[in-house]
C-alpha cells in the first residue's frame, strides 16, 4: 500500500446543487399533495419502463452487455488516475485544452473566465447534469453571461424558472397545457394562437432557438463518455440541439465528471448499446456526436474540457459506495422506483433524484451535509433499480450501507442514548437467549390489554409511533408460538412430528380469524 | 498545489485499498452473421420505424433517385468529395447544377449560407442494421459536420457493403478520432408528455438511399 505523506486524509466533499434542503419525508409529503404531478409522473415512468423492457428483451445478449459494462466501469475506478492522464495526453495532443476543477466553485470560475476571454456574453447549452450540479447557469448570470438551454425540456424548465424533476426528461412533471402557457408567457416571439399540440410546441421551440444556434459563438456541454485511449468525447442526444452546439460555435467548453471515462474505443460498443435502450427505451438515440480535441476545418477550433471532481474522489474513497460512480445517467432506476414514481424528482433536493440520487448525493457531499442523511431511507429496498441498472450498480446494498454510515455518524453525538439505541439494546438482550425471550413473551397479555376490545393497537408511544401513524397493529396472541409448540409437543414421542390423530382445539384467536 | 495534482492525489488516496481491475467479460455478440439481403431488410425496417424515408436501389439508379428527391429543393449542398456520378441525374445543362452549392475545406460555406440551403446530399461511412444507425465520419464524400446538420432535408446514400449487422462490427470499421456523427432517424423529441415528435433542430426530413 502506498502512503501519501503530507496529504489530507479527509475526503474532499462536493458542493453546488447536491443537497436536500429539507428531509426527504417532509419534501415527499409536500410533493405528494400535487395530484397533477403524480398523474404526469405515473404516466411517464410507466411509458418509459414499458418501452425499455421491449427493446431490452430484443437483445439476446443484454445480460452479457451488463456484465461487460459493470466490469469496464469497475476497472475505470481501479485505474482512474492512469486513465485520466492517458485521456489528457491524447485530447491535448489534438489541440484540446484540459482544465481541472476541485469543486463546483472552481469549475464555474473556469467556465466564466473562458467565456470572458472570447468577449461574448451569451452561450448556448447542451443539456448536462454536471453543469446543473455545479449551478453553472446561475453563476454565469451573476457574471453577466446569459446561458440558453437548448434541449426542449431544459428550455421549458428554464423559461418557467423551475427545477428539473427527472434527469432524462426534466419537464416530465408538466403537461402540454402548462408548457403552452409557459411559452406564451416567457417567449416574446411566441404565436399568440399557439396550441398545446406537442408538434406545434416543438416547432415553436425550433423557431425560438434557431437564430441562437446560427449566431452563437460559444457553447457549453456535458459529455456522456470520454475515451482514454483515443482522447475522444461523446454526447448522446435526440433533438439535434447537441449537434448544433457542438458543431457551429467557434468555442466549445465541456464540463465532465472525472468518472465518465472509458478505457478504450472498443468499450464504446458496450455503452452505446446499454445507454439508449436503458434511457429512452430506443434501439438507438437519434444523434450521437464524437470529437477528439480540435477537428481541423470542422466545428469549434477552440475546444476546452473541464474535469470535475466535486466530491467524486470522496465517493471513490468509500469502498462499498464507489460503484455509484459507475452511473451513466440513463434514469432507468427512476422509472422503476415506486418511491420516485410517487414523489417525483424535486423531493430529493439534489440534481440527482431517484434511487441513484439517494446514494450518489450523500456520497458526494458526505452523509452529514444538510438533510442528505435522509436520502438513503427514501426507498423500500425492493431492488427494482438494481435489476434495471445497465451497469448493475447494487443500489439497495449501498442504501443499506449508507444508512449504517448515517447511524454511525450520529453515534456519540448525543449525551443521552436515543430511543432507537435503547430499543436495539433491549432487543439484543432479549434475542440473545431463549430464556430471556421467554421472559419477554410473558408480557404478551399486556399487549392484549393495550389493544382493548377492538383488538387493535392504534398508537404506539415514542419512535414506534411512526409505525402506527398509518397502520394498526393487531393484538398479540394470548400465547407465543414457542409456548404453543412446547404445549403441543409435551407428550408427543418425536418432537416436530405432529401426531396425525391429534387435532388441536382452535384457540379463541383462530375462531375470530374465521369469522 | 495545482488542481490537477490535488485531484489526482485525492483519487490515489481514495484508492489506497488498491481495488483490482477485473478482467472484462466480452461474451456479448461480436458479429451478427447476417447476409446482405437480411442486413438490408433489417436496416430498412429500423429506418422506417424512425420515420425516415428509405429506398433500396441498384447502384446505377442512385443518380435518378437523388434527382427525384431534390425536385422540390431550390438549392442543395454537396461535399466536394461526393461521388460525382451520383449527381449525374442533375445534369449540367438544366437547372440541376445551378442549384448546387459545393462545400470544400478551401471554401467552406458560412453558417448563414447553409441556413438558406434546402437540402444536402452525402455518403456515409458505415451503417448498423440492428439499430438503424448511419455513421458519418467526415470523410470526403460526407464533408464537415455542419453541412449535414443545418439544411432541413438530408439525403444520405448507404452502400450495401457498408452495412454492418450490429454496433460492435460497425465501430470496428471506423477511426474514433475522426469527427463522428451517428444518426438514427430524423431529429426527435419526447419531452412533452413523452409523445414522440419527429423533427426538432436537426434535419426534419431524412431520406436514405441504400445502393446495392
Automatic annotation (TrEMBL), chain A:
Q: Origin, by domain of life?
A: Bacteria
Q: Name one Pfam family in it.
A: LUD_dom
Query: Which region is the signal sequence?
Result: none
Q: Does the keyword Transport apply?
A: yes
From the UniProt entry, list the residue stretches annotated as the region Disordered.
Answer: 461-515
Residue ranges annotated as compositionally biased, kind Basic and acidic residues, are: 501-515
Residue ranges of domain 4Fe-4S ferredoxin-type in the record: 324-393
What range(s) does the LUD domain occupy?
84-294
Key words of the record: 4Fe-4S, Electron transport, Iron, Iron-sulfur, Metal-binding, Repeat, Transport
Q: What is this protein called?
A: L-lactate dehydrogenase complex protein LldF
What organism is recorded for this protein?
A: Pseudarthrobacter enclensis
TrEMBL record, chain B:
The LUD domain, residue ranges = 117-210
Source organism per UniProt: Pseudarthrobacter enclensis
Q: Which Gene3D superfamilies match?
A: NagB/RpiA/CoA transferase-like
Q: Pfam families, from UniProt? A: LUD_dom
Per the record, which residues fall in region Disordered? 89-109
Name-wise, this protein is L-lactate dehydrogenase complex protein LldG
Amino acid at each position: 500500500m502506498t502512503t501519501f505523506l503530507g496529504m489530507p486524509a479527509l475526503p474532499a466533499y462536493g458542493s453546488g446543487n447536491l443537497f436536500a434542503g429539507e428531509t426527504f419525508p417532509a419534501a415527499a409529503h409536500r410533493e405528494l399533495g400535487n395530484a397533477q404531478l403524480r398523474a404526469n409522473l405515473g404516466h411517464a415512468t410507466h411509458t418509459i419502463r414499458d418501452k425499455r423492457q421491449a427493446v431490452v428483451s430484443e437483445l439476446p445478449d443484454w445480460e452479457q452487455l451488463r456484465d461487460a459494462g459493470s466490469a469496464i466501469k469497475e476497472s475505470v475506478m481501479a485505474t482512474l488516475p492512469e486513465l485520466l492522464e492517458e485521456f489528457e495526453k491524447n485530447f491535448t495532443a489534438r489541440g484540446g485544452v484540459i482544465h481541472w476543477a476541485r469543486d463546483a466553485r472552481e469549475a464555474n470560475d473556469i467556465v466564466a473566465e473562458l467565456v470572458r476571454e472570447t468577449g461574448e456574453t451569451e452561450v448556448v447549452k447542451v443539456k448536462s447534469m454536471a453543469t446543473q450540479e455545479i449551478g453553472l447557469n446561475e453563476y454565469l448570470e451573476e457574471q453577466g453571461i446569459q446561458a440558453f438551454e437548448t434541449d426542449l425540456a431544459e428550455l421549458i424548465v428554464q423559461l418557467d424558472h423551475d427545477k428539473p424533476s427527472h434527469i432524462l426528461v426534466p419537464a416530465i412533471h408538466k403537461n402540454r397545457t402548462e408548457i403552452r402557457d409557459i411559452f406564451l408567457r416567457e417567449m416574446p416571439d411566441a404565436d399568440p394562437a399557439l396550441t398545446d399540440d406537442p408538434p406545434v410546441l416543438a416547432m415553436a421551440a425550433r423557431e425560438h432557438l434557431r437564430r441562437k444556434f446560427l449566431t452563437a459563438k460559444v457553447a457549453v456541454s456535458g459529455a456522456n463518455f470520454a475515451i482514454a485511449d483515443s482522447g475522444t468525447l461523446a454526447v448522446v442526444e435526440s433533438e439535434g440541439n447537441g449537434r448544433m452546439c457542438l458543431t457551429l460555435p467557434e468555442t466549445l467548453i465541456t464540463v465532465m465528471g472525472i468518472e465518465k471515462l472509458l478505457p478504450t474505443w472498443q468499450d464504446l460498443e458496450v455503452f452505446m448499446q446499454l445507454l439508449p435502450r436503458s434511457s429512452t427505451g430506443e434501439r438507438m438515440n437519434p444523434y450521437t456526436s464524437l470529437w477528439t480535441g480540435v477537428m481541423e476545418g470542422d466545428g469549434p477550433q477552440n475546444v476546452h474540457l473541464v474535469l470535475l471532481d466535486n466530491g467524486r474522489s470522496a465517493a471513490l474513497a468509500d469502498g462499498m459506495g464507489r460503484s455509484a460512480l459507475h452511473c451513466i445517467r440513463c434514469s432507468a432506476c427512476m422509472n422503476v422506483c415506486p418511491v420516485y414514481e410517487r414523489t417525483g424528482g424535486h423531493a430529493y433536493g439534489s440534481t440527482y433524484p431517484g434511487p441513484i440520487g439517494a446514494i450518489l448525493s450523500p456520497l458526494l457531499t458526505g452523509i452529514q451535509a444538510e438533510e442528505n442523511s435522509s436520502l438513503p431511507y427514501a426507498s423500500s429496498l425492493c431492488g427494482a433499480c438494481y435489476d434495471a441498472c445497465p451497469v448493475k450498480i447494487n443500489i439497495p446494498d449501498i442504501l443499506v450501507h449508507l444508512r449504517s454510515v448515517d447511524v454511525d455518524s450520529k453515534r456519540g453525538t448525543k449525551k443521552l442514548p436515543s430511543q432507537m439505541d435503547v430499543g436495539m439494546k433491549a432487543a439484543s438482550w432479549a434475542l440473545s437467549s431463549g430464556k430471556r425471550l421467554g421472559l419477554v413473551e410473558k408480557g404478551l397479555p399486556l399487549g392484549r390489554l393495550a389493544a382493548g376490545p377492538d383488538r387493535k393497537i392504534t398508537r404506539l408511544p415514542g419512535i414506534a409511533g411512526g409505525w402506527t401513524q398509518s397502520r394498526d397493529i393487531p393484538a398479540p396472541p394470548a400465547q407465543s408460538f414457542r409456548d404453543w409448540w412446547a404445549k403441543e409437543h409435551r407428550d408427543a414421542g418425536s418432537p416436530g412430528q405432529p401426531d396425525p390423530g391429534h387435532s388441536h382445539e382452535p384457540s379463541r384467536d383462530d375462531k375470530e380469524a374465521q369469522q | 498545489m495545482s488542481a490537477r495534482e490535488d485531484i489526482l492525489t485525492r483519487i490515489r488516496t481514495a484508492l489506497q485499498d488498491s481495488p483490482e481491475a477485473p478482467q472484462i467479460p466480452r461474451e456479448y455478440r461480436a458479429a451478427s452473421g447476417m447476409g446482405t439481403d437480411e442486413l438490408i431488410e433489417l436496416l430498412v425496417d429500423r429506418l422506417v420505424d424512425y420515420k425516415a424515408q428509405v429506398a433500396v436501389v441498384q447502384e446505377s439508379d442512385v443518380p435518378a433517385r437523388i434527382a427525384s428527391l431534390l425536385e422540390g429543393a431550390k438549392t442543395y449542398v454537396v461535399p466536394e468529395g461526393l461521388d460525382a456520378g451520383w449527381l449525374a441525374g442533375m445534369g449540367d445543362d438544366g437547372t440541376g447544377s445551378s442549384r448546387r452549392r459545393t462545400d470544400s475545406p478551401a471554401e467552406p460555406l458560412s453558417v448563414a449560407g447553409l441556413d438558406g440551403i434546402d437540402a444536402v446530399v452525402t455518403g456515409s461511412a458505415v451503417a448498423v442494421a440492428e439499430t438503424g444507425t448511419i455513421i458519418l465520419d467526415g470523410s470526403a464524400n460526407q464533408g464537415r459536420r455542419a453541412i449535414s446538420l443545418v439544411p432541413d432535408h438530408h439525403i444520405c446514400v448507404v452502400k450495401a457493403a457498408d452495412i454492418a449487422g450490429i454496433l460492435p462490427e460497425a465501430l470496428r470499421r471506423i477511426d474514433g478520432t475522426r469527427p463522428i456523427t451517428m444518426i438514427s432517424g430524423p431529429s426527435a423529441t419526447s419531452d412533452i408528455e413523452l409523445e414522440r415528435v419527429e423533427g426538432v433542430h436537426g434535419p426534419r426530413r431524412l431520406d436514405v438511399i441504400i445502393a446495392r
